[in-house]
Amino acid sequence: LGISEEAVYTFTLDPQHEISAGEIIKIDFDDAYSLYDAQTVTTGFYVMPNGINTTENYILFGTLGAQSGPFTLSIEQIYNPAFAKQPTDDFVITTQLSGGGDIDTGSYAGVDIEPGQLSPITVSAANGSVLETDEYTVIFVASHPVDIGGTVRITFDSDCVLTKVTEGTEDVDVQIAGVTDSSASIELGSGNTLITTLGMAKIGRAH
Q1: Distances from the Cα of 202 to the Cαs of 65, 106, 121, 179, in angstroms?
Q2: Per-residue pLDDT tens over the stretch 148-164
Q3: How many Cβ atoms from other residues are within 10 Å of residue 111's Cβ?
Q4: DSSP 8-state code for residue 126
Q5: Pick from 8, 79, 9: which is nearest to 37 by CA?
Q6: Are 155 and 42 in contact (CB under 8 A)?
Q7: Residue 27, SS3?
Q8: φ, ψ for residue 102 (rounded to 5)?
């Protein structure tokens, strides 16, 4: 499952008690999902008016007829988290009376949202000589956009010494699709990693 992709999620339900017409099915999602446009494609169910709660991230489904398990409920226009998460929090499913009050509840295991790919990646050194202070240029194309304030982490070989890098904006030059990101900054991370924080959104090619 890809980052930020629109997806259809199908749940197979087998409640202990029959769901009567007019009763409710509540499905809680991981907070990282976007549910704004969600709708069901399963006959006999519908998203209730004001049934999408984006604060607590759940959807309420109404039922047009009695349901006894097992049965499936498919939901489309669910947008996966905008970052890799392996796995997401469990989906929690609860049947409820029409006026509120839980009947049965259970959970589905979360799913793995896989990271995208950076390709192609090219790395070049201005000098390349042993024991010299050098300047490295890394060019890549991201498969997903990075928002303002997002980071790019580059881990170097353990033999490279990064302590001479000045944290802040002085020792980093970020260009996104040919436009200089003058607000980008760099800092030292753990594990011989440099962390660049973007001052403008990154889409596509960057270096």
Answers
A1: 48, 40, 16, 10
A2: 898 999 999 999 999 99
A3: 17
A4: S
A5: 79
A6: no
A7: strand
A8: -75, 145
Do 186 and 167 meet the contact criterion of CB atoms below 8 Å apart?
A: yes
Q: How confident is the model at residue 111 (pLDDT cuts 50, 70, 90)?
A: very high
**CB count, 10 Å around CB of 122?**
9
Q: Which of 77, 108, 107, 96 is nearest to 8 (CA)?
A: 77
Contacts for 169 with CB less than 8 Å, ≥ 6 apart: 182, 183, 184, 185, 186
Strand partners, 187: 195
State both tokens at 148. 């303002």
SS3 50: strand
Containing 43, the helix (H) or strand (E) segment is none
* Cα–Cα distance for residue pair 119/97, rounded to 1 Å: 51
Instruction: Kindly report the pTM of this predicted structure.
Output: 0.78
CA distance 26 to 2: 25
d(CA 135, CA 128): 9
Residues 6 or more apart in contact with residue 11 via CB below 8 angstroms: 27, 72, 73, 74, 75, 91, 93, 108
Structure tokens at 40: 């069901």
